[in-house]
């Protein structure tokens, strides 16, 4: 078991004053059998009215509005989470059994449907479909992840929050969001249900207790072949005791940490910082 404190601060600096802003945040870790949330709070400055709810994909979301003039909006999420990953058997469904499972499940149908973000480049789709003729769904998924890890280079600043899988593949450069979208596109092209996972990753392989680390929001994937299996294609590792989950959905558009609209100011600039401390 590993326990982490995550402090995620983000917001907008406006060019001039915003007289009103309406926003939605997804920055609160999820609660499930492998992740125990001891405490979590979301602080908004300037203060405004807010409403927390679970969205369609069961992610905790907070809608809020600030109806007073402000030149900066700051949202800080502070959470203490204990990870209790269980190492179970690898999912073992083969292709003839997987298809009827998908047909009988709305969740799996959603997870096998491509989105604007995940539509894969033709080359990668062909690779995935060819693999599927030779391997089980789970083995195919692992090989897809390894292919993307081998072909791509991690680099900030080349792609952005609006990038799609085909753009990242053409450049062979991207960030975790691009790796996840490429992997999802290839998995879905092969007929494997897969979902985008948003959260945090402690950057150290063996983090020291009490040492603060500069982190960032992170993305990885899960696929289904009899059970859900989590893998981080950006780092070529299983998602386990350093990956803290905020939500699971179709792609980044369903899980953006913060999005909103404002009135009054000419423009805005997003700022982000994440600090992660292992406590136990």
Describe the structure.
The protein has 280 residues and is an alpha+beta fold. It has two domains: 2-84 and 256-278, Immunoglobulin-like (Sandwich); 95-254, C8orf32 fold. 23% of the residues lie in helices and 41% in strands. It has six helices and 16 strands. It has helices at residues 95-103, 106-112, 122-132, 137-151, 165-171, 176-190, and strands at 2-18, 20-25, 35-45, 49-54, 60-66, 70-83, 153-154, 173-174, 194-201, 212-215, 217-224, 228-232, 237-238, 243-249, 258-263, 268-278. Strands 3-6-1-16-10 form a five-stranded antiparallel β-sheet, with no helix packed on it. A five-stranded antiparallel β-sheet has the order 13-12-11-9-14. Strands 4-5-2-15 form a four-stranded antiparallel β-sheet, with no helix packed on it. A hairpin with a 5-residue loop joins strand 4 and strand 5 (60-66). The longest helix is centred in the middle third of the chain and has 15 residues, at 137-151. The model has no long low-confidence stretch (mean pLDDT 94).
Summary?
This protein has 280 residues and is of the alpha+beta class. The protein is built from 6 helices and 16 strands. It has 2 domains: 2-84 and 256-278, Immunoglobulin-like (Sandwich); 95-254, C8orf32 fold, CATH 3.10.620.30.
Sum up the overall morphology in one term: globular
Determine the fraction of residues in helical runs and give it as a percent range: 10-25%
What low-confidence regions span 5 or more consecutive residues with pLDDT below 50? Answer: none
Radius of gyration from the alpha-carbon trace, in angstroms: 19 Å
Strands, total number: 16
- How many individual helices? 6
Strand content: 35-45%
Q: What is the distance, rounded to the nearest whole angstrom, between the alpha carbons of the first and last residues? A: 8 Å
Mean pLDDT: 94
Structural class: alpha+beta
Annotated CATH topology of the largest domain: C8orf32 fold
Q: Class of the largest domain, according to the CATH hierarchy?
A: Alpha Beta
Which strand order do you get reading across the main beta sheet?
Answer: 3-6-1-16-10
